[in-house]
Amino acid sequence: MHEWLANLPKIELHLHIEGTLEPELAFELAQRHQIALPYPSVEALREAYNFADLQSFLDLYYQCAEVLRDEDDFYRLTMAYLERCHTQAVTHVEIFFDPQTHTARGIPMSTVIEGIERALKEGETRFGISSQLILCILRHLDEEDALATLNAALPYRDRIVGIGLDSGEQGNPPSKFTRAFDFARAQGWKIVAHAGEEGPADYIWQALKLLKVDRIDHGVRCVEDPSLVAHLRDINMPLTVCPLSNTRLRVFHSMAEHNLKTLLDQGLRVTLNSDDPAYFGGYMLENMLAVQEALNLTQAQWRQLTKNAIDASFIDHAHQQRLH
Ligand code: HPA
Ligand code: ZN
């Protein structure tokens, strides 16, 4: 089964590019830019990846992102991720980036987008990996900041497929961003939002009703509201589930307790993704192997997860047919 999973073509729909920063590259870039990281060595940094919850991860994730300064840093970060994708038979990726993490430090949006895009183009020609970019709004900041960020992204409107919502969920409900997402939809962008990761089922309802999302990122806490589960099934709403992330951030105590298989069995449109692979112990294949070991899915269920991801992707129908 391991070999079969390794060779299975894969689609990734929930991946934060800043979350692919491996400690080795973080230290190399820190040295290059003469920046101090909060830990003295690669080993000490890796040991700090023992998170109590989402916020304790985010604190470190934002600190490490400070080493990303110039276009070449974003290029190298993205290229390293695509090389991993190539070794794991990942054929299509939809990548989140967090511009506010960088623009707040004086780094222009153009530096971020152009560095990432240069790698994506190279990934397409060298490895045949197709890709899309999704700009994520940081929900711990206010709606004015979100609107300013969306306005600053307008020159890149056609190079971004959608807008997402990430960062600390508790206390930052989707309702805080209704106007920003109205604006995003009016630009023709697709909409996604992290909801029901640490936050309650009600945040999933809000993402559906107020932000009018095309996909829910995570969504695993939907099971706390049976009427929500029924609704998600009725509207065939994709959920981008991230198993290693959920166990590392203690949304579930262990992989054996993860509800991915239950959600699939309930007929929900579940996809499997890696979220922040450098921090959570693995990329697509490691996520699949951890799920397989704990939950023992059938080959038909794995095919279903891949089919769900193709159908939930933001690529045109003809391209989707080619991935099937
Ligand atoms: N949740 C919320 N925000 C994030 C995450 C996540 O899993 N990863 C990076 N930003
Ligand atoms: Zn995420």
TrEMBL record:
GO terms for biological process: adenine catabolic process; hypoxanthine salvage; nucleotide metabolic process. The record marks H218 as: Important for catalytic activity. One of its GO terms (cellular component) is cytosol. Zn(2+) binds at H14, H16, H194, D275. Binds 1 zinc ion per subunit. It holds the Pfam family A_deaminase. InterPro entries: A_deaminase_dom, ADE, Ado/ade_deaminase, Metal_Hydrolase. The active site is at E197 (proton donor). The keyword Zinc applies. Keywords: Hydrolase, Metal-binding, Nucleotide metabolism, Zinc. Substrate binds at D276. Its cofactor is Zn(2+). Residues 9-324 form the Adenosine deaminase domain. It is an enzyme of class 3 (hydrolase). The keyword Zinc applies. Its EC number is 3.5.4.2. Catalyzes the hydrolytic deamination of adenine to hypoxanthine. Plays an important role in the purine salvage pathway and in nitrogen catabolism. PANTHER family: ADENINE DEAMINASE (PTHR43114:SF6). This is Adenine deaminase.
